[in-house]
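Project standup — Tuesday

K.O.: blocked on the structure for the chain from last sprint. Re-posting the sequence here as requested.
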Amino acid sequence: MPASPQPPVQQDFPPLPPPPPRSPALRVVETAFLASTAALIWILSYTPLAPFMRLFFPIPVALAVMRWDPRTGAMALAVSALLLTVLMGPTRSILYVIPYGLLGYWCARLWRRRLSWYVSVASGAALSAFGLVFQLLLSSLLVGENLWTYVTIQLTGLTNWLLDVSLARLGVYWVAEPWMVQVVVAGFIAFNSLVYVFTVHLVAALVMEHFRCPLPPPPKWVQFLLD
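H.V.: unblocked you, prediction finished:
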């Protein structure tokens, strides 16, 4: 006898419905969520988690730009600044916006245009260095003293003391000038900014991939680090 046809096997789980189209309400909700996340990360930076949380300062604003558009990123940046102004005061709010909020917005604009990592890292490092100088100037204004000159004098004295201790036995005497110390400090700021922005790119590459808005393809040697 011919075999009777088998009934079709019923699937245990129906397929997922297609995702709903992005609505203006969803844009507002995500903007508020990302802005509050940015404010929370900044507040947590005043805890012992500061070195780790610092890597995520630009991420919420950048994510708003990547998931939606630059206008949404600007809204997230503005709302996070308002939140921090209410919670911590205008000074610390400004210290977040410049450079970290602007850094996230700027880098995300470059990522959306699919520009090279070299362009975004270099320009982001310049923006980060400018932000550090701005923070120093703002702190000098609030304290009422030129902190750049104060730091230069202190570092010059420390450098000359170290030179005297290390070179006196050799009969060599050398005095460091203040401008030399300033050049070294400026170089350190530039190098620190470059390393920081590059590390932020690595963190953003992992985060954005999770939200399906990937960064431009990194250089091959960077891809090796990510893999």
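K.O.: great, moving the ticket to review. The chain has one domain: 24-226. The radius of gyration is 25 Å.
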